[in-house]
Design brief:
The chain is mainly beta and 223 residues long. Helix content is 6%, strand content 38%.
Length: 223
């Protein structure tokens, strides 16, 4: 059973778009290949021989933007899951190059769901990660038509023996999630958090509504 969340307001926003500098050697879209520029070899190979034809370089530019270096506090560029584990409804985690919010890799979370089930990824830290009053952001890619009821990012400060803990989360309805796209799901640690709790567990819980199999991707975790 899911713990009752202390923070229930939906906390999902569309990822901010950071203006990217287009490399000088790549011309704007819709330029003719007869123009005097020196594109990279990979683009020159795609350039038509006829000067009357026009080439769109948009895709190549977008590719360079999306593969920009991921400098998030937690990313998966080294090919490891960085300590994340699973719990609840049958699920597994690994890294993949199929999708990435930044860089070239993300955490691939494969879930086999049940009616009224719960899937969870979690990471336990033996030190304080998030300070009181601060916010943690998970970038989460969610599929369409998945048997999902809600997505709940959370952080739980606790003592080393787990005798005392404080649960904090943001409950987000599947209806409010962008499907087939990246979402920024956030959770904020209250300023009133007990600072004597020197360890923290954080992660994401997903409530499921029916039997099925689907994949969620997680990337670029920041605070």
């Amino acid at each position: 059973m899911l713990r009752k969340a202390l923070r229930m307001s939906p906390s999902v926003v569309s990822p901010a778009v950071t203006p990217a500098k287009i490399p000088e050697e790549i011309p704007p879209a819709d330029v003719k290949c007869s123009m005097p520029f020196a594109p990279p070899a990979a683009l020159r190979a795609k350039c038509p021989s006829s000067p009357e034809k026009t080439v769109r370089y948009t895709a190549a530019i977008v590719s360079q933007i999306t593969t920009a270096e991921d400098k998030s506090k937690i990313n998966f560029e080294d090919g490891t899951v960085n300590g994340f584990d699973t719990n609840g409804t049958s699920s597994t985690v690994s890294t993949t190059t199929d999708r990435a919010f930044k860089g070239t890799q993300s955490l691939e979370w494969k879930i086999s769901s049940t009616v009224g089930g719960k899937a969870e990824i979690k990471l336990n830290s033996n030190k304080v990660v998030l300070a009181p009053g601060s916010t943690m952001t998970f970038r989460v890619w969610v599929p369409s038509d998945a048997p999902i009821k809600s997505i709940q990012p959370y952080i739980m400060p606790h003592d080393s023996s787990w005798l005392t803990s404080e649960w904090n989360s943001s409950w987000i309805s599947y209806d409010n999630i962008k499907k087939g796209d990246w979402n920024e799901c956030t959770v904020t640690l209250p300023s009133t958090t007990n600072t004597s709790l020197t360890e923290q567990q954080f992660g994401i819980q997903i409530e499921t509504t029916a039997q099925g199999s689907f994949t969620v991707y997680v990337d670029s975790i920041d605070w």
